[in-house]
Design goal:
By secondary structure, the protein is an alpha/beta fold. About 35% of the residues lie in helices and about 20% in strands. The chain has an 8-stranded mixed β-sheet, with helices on one face. Strands 1-2-3 form a 3-stranded antiparallel β-sheet. The termini are far apart.
Length: about 280
């Protein structure tokens, strides 16, 4: 069940709404079947009436199949944004997915309206910078990074939910136990943990890490509750060309050219209070 972090995230959404009315939900954009099996088919987007967009991962369980079967976009259009964001606290994975997309859309709007500029020059994966003898943790198997880490002489522990992936390999290990992340110097995690009810447990196991990054297109939310729990970097994706993005998603074509990856580092982030003050001014 959703826990304290979810409640804190929604409390911040309430505070954003208190600063001024939020635009209602305008549309839900679902990946085209043509994008199945590609990264472009892994995310949906909630759009607000001011064209703010928030992404959310749809491949947990049968979430995507349920969304494609029910096509809830028409029923969501016109819904108050805060109402849909509240679904992030729902136990139902489909409603939770849509709620998180709304949280991200509201957060992206808040960043823009407050004048906050994303850092698009930082590579969160490059910042991992594995060194010989270091213990590196990975939450979710980023297969393309395994050799880059192990090849540098670092030891890699990967936390996964899929039992069939567990085992010991040459220089790295896949485990189902979050406790094995304890003692890792640096940890890279997918932002999917914000959806699959593992975030509290995973972050609690990472308290010894000096570098803890959550990265992924679904990382469009406010970082404050994450930074309070030891996360040092939140990497997300901002849509910079709404029309191009929506058209590409509808066609099942790559949409990364209409988006920009960014990183928010805890030691350079002004914080929610400062951004709120800037918005009020």
């Amino acid at each position: 069940m959703p826990g304290a972090l979810t409640a804190e995230m929604l409390a911040l959404i309430d505070r954003i709404e208190a600063l001024g009315p939020l635009p209602p939900v305008a549309a839900l954009h679902l990946p085209s079947p043509e994008a199945e099996g590609t990264r472009d088919g892994e995310f949906c987007a909630v759009e607000l009436a001011d064209r703010s967009l928030g992404l959310s991962y749809v491949l947990l369980g049968d979430t995507l199949q349920a969304l494609l079967a029910s096509r809830p976009g028409a029923s969501l259009a016109g819904m108050p944004a805060r109402e849909l964001a509240g679904w992030y606290a729902d136990a139902d994975p489909v409603r939770r997915t849509l709620g998180f997309a709304a949280v991200n859309a509201i957060s992206q709007r808040f960043f823009r309206e407050s004048g906050y500029r994303f850092d698009t020059s930082v590579d969160s994966i490059g910042m991992l910078d594995p060194q010989p003898g270091e213990r590196i943790g990975m939450v979710g198997l980023f297969r393309g990074l395994v050799e880059r880490i192990v090849g540098k002489g670092a030891r890699l522990t990967v936390l996964e939910l899929k039992p069939e992936l567990a085992g010991d390999f040459d220089g790295w290990r896949v485990t189902l136990d979050p406790g094995e992340l304890a003692g890792c110097d640096k940890i890279l995690s997918t932002t999917t943990i914000l959806l699959n009810d593992t975030v509290e447990q995973v972050l609690a196991a990472c308290t010894g890490a000096r570098y803890l990054a959550l990265v992924g297109p679904g990382g469009g939310c406010l970082p404050d509750p994450l930074f309070a729990r030891g996360v040092t970097v939140l990497g997300g994706t901002a849509i910079v060309d709404r029309d191009g993005f929506v058209d590409a998603m509808a066609r099942g074509e790559p949409w990364s050219g209409f988006a920009r990856k960014y990183c928010i580092a805890a030691d350079r982030y002004p914080g929610f209070e400062a951004l709120s003050a800037a918005l009020r001014d």
